[in-house]
């Protein structure tokens, strides 16, 4: 049988080392599809994908269109998952311009941007459909809006078809860039978990492993391109309820330290990331809840992990990670 690594990859995951990249890679692997994991750190890529015979690893410099083109050579579909530091959101539009230029030079046919709810600003109503006005009142929202517009305006040019898939906040096993991650770590350790409040408003979270099968389906759904689509979570839940369920799995009462907007401002005097969180605090008081009926009309019913199961799996992963980090007693 031919070695899978010798089969050219037709799908490229740009910014593959993060949680979204790992989710999509798992779905591609399950479907027997080859993919190219593209990032800036070979060490991170090797750690995530070095043992996967379906994966081809490639490095890129997203600031250089020629480097983008080199990383994209031979690809049919590009999935853009690139994150930037929370205090450097101005990087989003120029990085996307470079990426589109590189993809055009390489002759890539499809581009999927994994986006956020930031471009909407405060919701006028919930749930929010794709027809909701995009009226961001924050700098981060405006940067994400500009990024989205670059992708949407590139559709139909130079043979490139584009799609924006918006996600809510997310969580999952070992998803460290979720503000619920501290809850699972705290429950596993029996320690106090730091949370950002208020924590009693219904909120929507996507279980990150549910993303991969959806993106895999969209890669072969021609009618999805040239538009924006939503992927919603499994309903809503309050962050406090997430904490209660996680600590219950450990047989413990929740121990929480909740930082509200005033505390974030104070912490922001010393921590630039905390300072940046103040701007997006409205998402905790006026959360955006997504309607994904348009997506389901295109690809059919979507399997979504319940909060009970997602919390259990996230807690188990945190517990296993704690055991791996704890030296065995002699």
From TrEMBL:
This is Nucleoside-diphosphate-sugar epimerase. It comes from Paraburkholderia rhizosphaerae. Residues 14-221 form the NAD-dependent epimerase/dehydratase domain. SUPFAM superfamilies: NAD(P)-binding Rossmann-fold domains. It comes from the Bacteria. InterPro entries: Epimerase_deHydtase (IPR001509), NAD(P)-bd_dom_sf (IPR036291). The lineage of its organism: Bacteria, Pseudomonadati, Pseudomonadota, Betaproteobacteria, Burkholderiales. Pfam families: Epimerase.
């Amino acid at each position: 049988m031919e070695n899978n690594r010798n089969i050219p990859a037709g799908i490229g995951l740009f910014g593959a080392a993060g949680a979204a990249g790992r989710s999509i890679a798992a779905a591609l692997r399950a479907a027997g599809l080859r993919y190219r994991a593209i990032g800036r750190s070979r060490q991170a890529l090797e750690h995530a994908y070095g043992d996967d015979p379906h994966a081809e690893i490639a490095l890129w410099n997203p600031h250089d269109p020629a480097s983008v083109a080199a990383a994209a050579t031979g690809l049919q579909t590009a999935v853009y998952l690139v994150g930037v530091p929370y205090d450097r959101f101005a990087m989003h539009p120029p990085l996307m311009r470079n990426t589109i230029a590189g993809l055009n030079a390489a002759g890539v046919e499809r581009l999927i941007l994994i986006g956020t709810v930031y471009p909407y600003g405060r919701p006028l109503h919930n749930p929010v459909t794709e027809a909701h006005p995009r009226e961001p009142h924050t700098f981060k929202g405006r940067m994400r809006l500009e990024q989205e517009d670059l992708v949407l305006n590139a559709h139909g040019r130079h043979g490139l078809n584009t799609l924006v898939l918006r996600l809510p906040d997310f969580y999952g096993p070992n998803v460290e860039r979720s503000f619920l991650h501290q809850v699972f770590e705290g429950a596993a350790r029996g320690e106090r978990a730091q949370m950002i409040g208020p924590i009693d408003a219904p909120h929507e979270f996507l279980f990150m492993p549910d993303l991969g099968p959806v993106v895999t389906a969209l890669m072969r759904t021609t009618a999805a391109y040239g538009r924006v689509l939503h992927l919603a979570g499994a309903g809503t839940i309050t962050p406090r309820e997430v904490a209660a369920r996680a600590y219950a799995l450990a047989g413990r009462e929740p121990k929480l330290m909740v930082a509200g907007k005033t505390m974030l401002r104070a912490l922001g005097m010393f921590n630039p990331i905390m300072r940046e969180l103040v701007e997006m605090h409205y998402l905790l008081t006026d959360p955006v809840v997504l309607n994904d009926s348009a997506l389901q009309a295109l690809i059919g019913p979507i399997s979504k992990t319940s909060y009970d199961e997602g919390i259990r799996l996230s807690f188990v992963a945190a517990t296993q990670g704690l055991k791996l980090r704890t030296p065995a007693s002699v």
